[in-house]
Amino acid sequence: MREFFGFGGYAREPEGFLSWQHLLFVTSLMVVMTGLALILGKKNRHSQAAKKDRVLKVAAILIDSIELFKLVIVCIRSKDAWAWLYDLPLFLCSIQLITIPLAAFSRGRVKEAALDFVCIFGMLGAVLGTYGAGNNYGSYPVLSFDNVVSGITHSISGFSALYILVSGMASMKKRNIWITFTILLGFCVAAYTANVLLDYNYMFLMRGDGTPYDILFNLLSGHAVLYPICVVLLFLAYIFGFYGIYFLAKQKKKVKAV
């Protein structure tokens, strides 16, 4: 158990990013995530809103409880009560720690916007945070506390996004697009500020750190201004692309129905 939780450091060598152990582990998580989302989403598709919300409430409680437990272990392991400053919810995937609870427990337009945000970024975060997490799987053994917790929380984000889509909870109203932008840009500003103050790399706004962001970082030769701006622009372009594909698919569905 000491080895699993990493007390005193991991004695095992990391199997490596994109090793068969890494791919097998995260693929197993993706299969479970997708299967549960499809089963529960289809089951509750025609249920009342309260019943649909129950699944998201469980997901919200799980993801936040696991993350809080992780912070406790990180502080104990490092013997530093301030170690949590380097695990703030300021990564793109971490925003779901706030938006999933909002989607599950809030009402009205806030709920609509939160549901849409989870729907838009949940699957992207799940894929990037598992298959693309070169920073984690290149540093820690696959079956270690850091990677298992990361894999589970990213999978919950992906599950929530798929469940929202399959169960028909997504509104994707055009009037809420600006709220999605505001949430994202607000977190980007907070992440960049934290990066400067803590010399860290939240949202990967400073460098790629072994993730797919390295492609953009290398293309821009690590430019201190252009790189973070382009990362944010990629986020915004992704939002536009997601909405475009969603509305196109919805339009085709209407045409077929006619």
How would you describe this protein?
The structure is a single chain. The chain is mainly alpha-helical. The protein contains ten helices and no strands. The protein has helices spanning 2-5, 20-44, 49-78, 96-105, 108-128, 134-137, 145-167, 177-198, 213-219, 226-257. The protein is globular and about 60 Å long.
Q: Top keywords for this entry?
A:
mainly alpha, 258 residues, 10 helices
Average pLDDT reading? 91
Number of helices: 10
Oligomerization category of the chains in this entry: single chain
H/E series, N to C?
HHHHHHHHHH
Distance between the termini: 60 Å
Structural class: mainly alpha
Beta-strand content estimate: under 5%
* Uncertain stretches: none
Number of strands: 0
Give the proportion of residues in helices.
55-70%
Characterize the overall form.
globular
Largest beta-sheet characterization: none
Rg measurement, Å: 19 Å
